Amino acid sequence: MAAWHRTTRHCAIESLPRPFESSPLKFPCKVRLLVYNIRYATGTGPAFHLPIPGAGYLRSNRKVLTGITEFLRAEQPHIVGLIEVDTGSIRTGMLNQAEHIARELGHYSTFQCKYGTDSINQFMPIVRKQGNAFLSSPSVHGERFHYFDTGIKRLIIELELSDVCVFLVHLSLKFRQRQYQLRSLHDLILQSAKPVIVAGDFNTFWGTHEIYLFMRAAGLRSANTAGLPSFPARVPRIELDFILVSEGIEVTDFRVPDVRFSDHRPLVCDFRVHAGATVRTDSEPAAADASAASAA
Q1: pTM of the predicted model, to two decimals?
Q2: Which CATH class is domain 29-282?
């Protein structure tokens, strides 16, 4: 698999193309996107931290995976973004959770390890199989894996459909590294000629306030207009997970279901893409700023 680097003003993002097969399905007028950090289907609750804190990460629970799959089936999403998915380690008995769920739903799947291609995590048992994934039923025009140049979790999955590009991310736990990642993400998504959705676990402990400038600069807005929290699942207090949409995308419904298979709750967003919608170019924000300055 060949690798190439796209260099922007601020960072280098490594991108890996991957073969794909287009589905014959037509892109629907109204689309349902579901984003869920499933915590490798290891479950939650007090037993997760026995006999030592975090021990649950070493144990996959097939009942939890079945519960997640049945929840997804009931929601009938067209696109699913899965964060923290095991792609076939000894923890799951070599079961690739992304492929398993995709088969059950009749979806196309794409997945990749979430660590950088040169990371030591690529050589560690269990950890090297920890990734993110897209499952999709509409026509897939292409996919691409990009990597941030900072942080431990570096993967960006870009899924290109007929009318929209969707980016799936899992940002760093460290504030400074998140800001660097957001800066890189801004440069990447502005290159899309189609309307854009950016979704995933942003680890933003300050909620929307932390990504306000990123959204303004990239021309994005949150589908979660009520600011509903998604973490922790038992009693949500923090808005860690986001679905951000660009111009040309109309959000018709947004929910955070009370589902507790993971430490996060899922996000469910119904949207439609307006025909002929395009995204603004790099020059448009500057032009808007200049107009505002002259008016003042």
Answers
A1: 0.85
A2: alpha beta
